[in-house]
Structure to design on (161 residues):
């Protein structure tokens, strides 16, 4: 009986030792107002592989385009799995990423002429190669800058006539 308890305790420690904590995760919520109604703007920006041209690189999809379970490959090396989709949003993950990276793109109606475009990133900063606070802050700053630029590109596409 003591052996079973000891083994159970070791197993419990093994399972929880590598578990991420909430404070390890970084959330970068970005949003902008789009001067177009959501039902007109979303079809212009909801293509799962539009991110390729917006980042001025390549993007290919395996599996059915824009369907849950499809995988987009950006720049020939970044693989992202479409894990959720609604009428006005989609969420992807990078399943092989050590930082447990996820992103959600969403549009919300504000009124008949405007909408809100949101891009939310979530990742485990504790898994980054360097663990100093300033490195994590710099990483967040770089991602925020990169995706703020992407959001501006998406806004322009959504507002295009």
């Amino acid at each position: 009986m003591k052996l079973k308890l000891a083994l159970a305790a070791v197993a419990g420690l093994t399972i929880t030792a590598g578990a991420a904590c909430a404070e390890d995760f970084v959330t970068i919520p970005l949003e902008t107002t789009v001067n177009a109604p959501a039902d007109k703007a979303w079809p212009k920006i909801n293509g799962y592989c539009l991110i390729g041209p917006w980042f001025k690189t390549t993007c290919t999809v395996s599996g059915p385009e824009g369907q849950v379970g499809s995988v987009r490959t950006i720049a020939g090396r970044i693989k992202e799995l479409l894990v959720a989709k609604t009428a006005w949003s989609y969420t992807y993950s990078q399943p092989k990423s050590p930082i447990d990276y996820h992103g959600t793109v969403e549009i919300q109606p504000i009124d008949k002429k405007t909408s809100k475009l949101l891009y939310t990133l979530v990742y485990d900063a504790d898994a980054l190669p360097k663990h100093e606070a300033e490195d994590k802050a710099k990483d967040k700053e770089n991602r925020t800058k990169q995706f703020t630029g992407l959001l501006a590109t998406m806004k322009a596409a959504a507002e295009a006539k």
The mean pLDDT is 87. Residues 41 and 158 are 4 Å apart (CA to CA).
